[in-house]
Amino acid sequence: MSSGEEKAWHILRDLSPGDVCGNALVKYDPLSGTYLLRSFGLDISVQPQYTRIYSDAPEAGVLLDRLGYCSRLSILNYLTSAKNIPMSGRLLQPVNLKGGHSFFRGTHLLPLDKLAITYESNAKSFLKRGTELDGVQLDYGDASLQLFPFPRIPVVIILWLEDEEFPARTDLLFDSTCEFHLPLDMLWSTAMKSLLMMM
Question: What is the pTM assigned to this prediction?
Fold first, then answer.
């Protein structure tokens, strides 16, 4: 367990479950001491007493195991940092977040091109995969989805199909309030797992 994860568990154990539920829009079972978080339509259980994050859904293996490096710490940070602030409806690219222009580059460059190649001429498959992740279809680009890696942090992914002039392209956007709920590095993790869950 990393020092960051250990610190996040310590903070979560000290918080009032009522405050966590109101701020993060999660549920709490006082008998088992378990928070229940919805992520991509999956029920994720978080037990601070046992430093345990798990799910009974078989599909959650990708999120919690294969993408655990993106998921575990961002889940804990979300539970400890989220604020009771409604979404604004104003969408921003990650580079337009405070500090985002310098952060979302180099080793932190998001694999938007890879996702575009995956669905370059197949909007139907793109939308089907998004529906499997409990996404909502939107009206941007040639196809677009709103996913919910966290209840207060929607991620919008827009697909532009390839044509005779241009290759396929994808864009990822956050609601402008995302910065109130997570620090920049955890927003990167949230964007990463959203894109990788779509592949």
Answer: 0.95
